[in-house]
Amino acid sequence: MRLKAAIEGNLRKHMKAEFATAEKAVTMGIKETTTGLKLAMRRQVHSSGLGQRMANTWRGDIYPRGQNSIRAAGLVYTKASKIMAGFDEGTVIKSKDGWWLAIPTPNAPKRGMGGKRINPSNFPEHRFGKLRFVYRRNGPSLLVAENVQASYARKTGELRGFRKAGKRNLKTGNKLSTVVMFWLVPQVKLPKLIKFDAEAKRWFDKLPRLILKNWPD
After folding, report:
1. Is 140 exposed, middle or buried (0-12, 13-18, 19+ CB in 10 A)?
2. Which of 131, 112, 129 is nearest to 183 (CA)?
3. Whole-prediction pTM value?
4. Is 119 strand, coil or helix?
5. What is the pLDDT of residues 67-90, one digit of tens each?
6. Closest Cα partner for 180 from 131, 143, 152?
7. 131 by DSSP, 3-state: which?
C-alpha cells in the first residue's frame, strides 16, 4: 500500500504523516522517561527519610513545550540541588564562621528571629534566655538554655516546647530546666542516601523501548 501511494504521487503526504508519527512517538517516549525518573527520585528521597516536601523538589520539564518534536528532550532537576548533591556525594560540611557547626536539637524552635531557619545568631533570647556554651571532651559540645520550663498541651499532656520561666518559678526554683538547644561539632558527613546517576542511567536505557511502544505498527 505504501509503494502504491508513492507511485500515485502521494509520497510527500505519506512521509509527512510518518514524520508526524515519529515526532509523537519520540515526544511520548521522552515524557514517560522524564516522568519516570522524576518520580523515581521522589521515591528515593522520601524513602530515605528526608520527607515528602524535600522529595517534591524534584521536577521534570519537556522541551519544546506543548508540541511534538523529533528532537524532544527532557530535563529532570531539583530545586534543592545543593542539599541533594550533599546526600548523593556524602559531602562533609564544616562551619564557615568558626570552629563549630551548630546542629539544632528537637528542643530548639524551628524558626529564629526574622522567621529564618534557627541558628545561634538568630536564637530568640527574649523567649528562652541567653545560650550557654558547655564544652565536652567526649562527644559534641553544647549550647544550652537555662532556667526554662516545659509547656504541655492541656488535652493530651504532650510536650509542646519550652519557654522562659516566669518570675515566680525563678524565685522558687520550681519546674526549672536546662535544655540543650544545639549540638556543636567540628564537621558532619552527610550519608549517601540517594543515587541520581544510577537512576538516570536506568531510565535512559529504557528510552528506546518507550519510544517504540508509542510508535504504532
Report:
1. middle
2. 131
3. 0.62
4. coil
5. 999 999 999 999 988 888 888 888
6. 143
7. strand
